[in-house]
Specification:
Length: about 190
């Protein structure tokens, strides 16, 4: 069974080879190479579609098996690549939001889906007043990983609202003190 690290290395290698094809000077060879890749993708797509159709005809277990396949990270990515995932983009995004929200709360934030439109996703993440300075970056990364993991076919992701709220403890950053003209020696303005 392919582990996550091996899979990532293969994806990077594929990306590198595609880049090499794009840089081939001979236009005929470049076009033939791209056609070969496209024909292989089309063959895989047709085969996967036939497999899913065959499974779906099993009325007793078919849809459950397809749903299970859609939840597997590797198979899910392949199904998305070929446009065969059993769940649409909006549903996969909603499930990802639902699954990550408890972790975001535990990490000191709140997460809300604003919209999914034309493959673009907008979410609102707010940080609670009791969070530390690195919380915003951690939450943003957590949300991005969850959404791109569930929906690698996103056209884009906009994470809004990660400005740190003013602290309720009375802490004022040194930069703000200097901007008001406060003298650090005497405390006078």
């Amino acid at each position: 069974m392919t582990d996550e690290r091996d899979l990532q290395q293969r994806v990077q290698r594929i990306s590198g080879l595609v880049h090499e094809i794009d840089s081939v000077a001979d236009p005929g060879l470049r076009a033939s190479s791209k056609e070969l890749v496209q024909l292989l993708l089309d063959l895989h797509s047709a085969g996967l579609e036939r497999i899913l159709e065959t499974i779906a005809h099993r009325e007793d277990l078919g849809q459950r098996i397809i749903d299970d396949l859609g939840r597997d990270p590797l198979v899910s990515s392949l199904l998305v690549l070929y446009g065969l995932h059993p769940l649409d983009l909006e549903t996969r995004v909603a499930h990802a939001i639902e699954n990550i929200t408890p972790r975001v709360r535990k990490g000191g934030g709140e997460l809300h889906l604003i919209e999914v439109q034309n493959g673009m996703v907008r979410v609102q993440v707010s940080v609670t007043a009791h969070a530390c300075g690195s919380t915003a970056a951690t939450l943003k990364s957590m949300v991005e990983d969850a959404l791109y993991g569930a929906a690698p076919d996103l056209a884009g992701l906009l994470v809004e609202g990660l400005d740190q709220p003013a602290s309720s403890t009375g802490f004022v950053p040194v930069a703000k003190l200097g901007a008001t003209g406060t003298s650090f020696v005497t405390g006078e303005s």
